């Protein structure tokens, strides 16, 4: 019990100072002593408030003898420095931090309440378990896969599976003492970082899906029904400027940017992804796209047969398929926000790309 702990604390101090008894030390009767011991027990429940409350005790309890005041003042100052030690250590030069990491062993209780949580484990064994479980789960299920049920596109699901396959090969090298070189360890570190960048927007899509259930929550480590934080309510106004280049094998390399970024891929403010609306068509004798407003036969992003897909990077590879080599693809693009689709930007002008 806190009271017995506080009482023992005072009794140890009395024994060390050879005082006759606790009542004599503080010059209080038994009832008042129990009151102050109970007060101290409440303090001990919250270490963050202890230095402040000790200051109040030192200021207002004039009945405390000088030697007890010195002890409490020392305890208050010690707790202040101990609580701020992580902040002090962050300011140390890098070559001095490593020898001082032992402070984490005894400071963990002080900062455990402020530890950030993450969906994807940042430890290598934990990450290995996460990517294997999610890579299998996202493609499981018939006739609709778990990923499709939660709002992922076929490309998203395929990319997730491919990253799992790549990780298995890399982790096998990392786990083998004969192959676990510095280059392999650096590759593991970079892979984990790249996977987190890839997966976080997709996890947001799945967590917001009305089809998400507790089993999904357990596998992907997201929370269902979290309160939506405040955000901008102004739709994205910028139009996607994109280039689609055939790279062979039925694949197209897309590079998207804003109008004010002339040479590098980028995303518009408020967007975390790009949405494509596309349709593969049989080639005809006219290799150029029709002019805007040129007739009723010109497709739009909402024309029947148009497929839509979201990509979380401004540069990505689109898998059109070997069977479509030689055909043309009609494409529109717009900036997209996976958390707030209502803020999506306007569609780009029509573009026609030859699949090679």
Topology:
Elements: H1 2-17, H2 22-26, H3 30-44, H4 50-60, H5 66-90, H6 94-97, H7 103-111, H8 124-137, H9 146-149, H10 154-175, H11 182-207, H12 214-220, E1 241-248, E2 251-257, E3 273-281, E4 307-311, E5 315-319, E6 328-336, E7 351-354
Antiparallel strand pairs: 1-2, 2-5, 3-4, 3-6, 6-7
List keywords for this structure.
356 residues; Immunoglobulin-like; 3 domains; 7 strands; 44% helix
Description:
The protein contains twelve helices and seven strands. By secondary structure, the chain is of the alpha+beta class. It has three domains: 2-87, no CATH class; 124-220, no CATH class; 241-354, Immunoglobulins (Immunoglobulin-like), CATH 2.60.40. A hairpin with a 2-residue loop joins strand 1 and strand 2 (251-257). Helix 5 (66-90) packs across helix 7 (103-111), helix 8 (124-137) packs antiparallel against helix 10 (154-175) and helix 10 packs antiparallel against helix 11 (182-207).
What do we call the CATH homologous superfamily of the largest domain?
A: Immunoglobulins
Q: Order of strands across the biggest sheet?
A: 4-3-6-7
Report the order of strands and helices. HHHHHHHHHHHHEEEEEEE
**In CATH's first tier, which class of the largest domain applies?**
Mainly Beta
- Estimated share of beta-strand residues: 5-15%
State the distance separating the first and last CA atoms.
Answer: 76 Å
Instruction: Count the DSSP helices.
Output: 12
The CATH architecture of the largest domain would be: Sandwich
CATH topology call of the largest domain: Immunoglobulin-like
Number of domains: 3
Low-confidence stretches: 1-6, 16-26, 99-116, 291-295
Oligomer kind: single chain
The major sheet is characterized as: 4 strands, antiparallel
Radius of gyration: 31 Å
Mean pLDDT, to the nearest integer, reads 76
Tell me the total number of β-strands.
7
């Amino acid at each position: 019990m806190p009271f017995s702990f506080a009482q023992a604390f005072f009794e140890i101090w009395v024994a060390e100072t050879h005082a006759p008894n606790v009542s004599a030390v503080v010059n209080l009767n038994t009832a008042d002593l129990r009151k102050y011991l109970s007060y101290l027990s409440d303090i001990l429940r919250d270490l963050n408030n202890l230095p402040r409350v000790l200051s109040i005790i030192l200021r207002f309890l004039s009945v405390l003898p000088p030697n007890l005041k010195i002890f409490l003042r020392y305890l208050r100052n010690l707790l202040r420095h101990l609580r701020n030690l992580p902040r002090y250590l962050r300011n140390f030069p890098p070559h001095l931090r490593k020898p001082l990491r032992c402070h984490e062993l005894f400071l963990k209780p002080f900062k455990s309440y402020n530890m950030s949580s993450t969906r994807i484990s940042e430890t290598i064994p934990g990450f290995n378990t996460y990517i294997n479980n999610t890579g299998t789960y996202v493609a499981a299920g018939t006739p609709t896969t778990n990923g499709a049920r939660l709002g992922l596109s076929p490309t998203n699901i395929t990319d997730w599976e491919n990253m799992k396959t790549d990780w298995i090969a890399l982790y096998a090298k990392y786990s083998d003492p004969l192959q676990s070189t510095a280059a392999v360890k650096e590759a593991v570190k970079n892979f984990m970082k790249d996977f987190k960048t890839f997966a976080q927007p997709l996890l947001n899509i799945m967590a917001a899906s009305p089809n998400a259930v507790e089993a999904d929550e357990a596998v992907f480590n997201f929370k269902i029904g979290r309160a939506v934080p405040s955000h901008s309510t102004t739709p994205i106004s910028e139009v996607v400027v994109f280039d689609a280049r055939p790279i062979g094998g039925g694949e197209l390399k897309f590079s998207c940017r804003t109008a004010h970024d002339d040479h590098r891929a980028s995303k518009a403010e408020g967007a975390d992804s790009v949405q494509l609306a596309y349709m593969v068509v049989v080639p005809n004798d006219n290799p150029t796209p029709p002019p805007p407003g040129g007739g009723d036969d010109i497709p739009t992003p909402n024309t029947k047969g148009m497929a839509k897909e979201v990509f979380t990077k401004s540069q990505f590879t689109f898998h059109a398929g070997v069977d479509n080599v030689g055909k043309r693809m009609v494409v529109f693009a717009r900036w997209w926000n996976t958390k707030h689709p209502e803020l999506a930007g306007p569609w780009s002008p029509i573009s026609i790309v030859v699949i090679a």
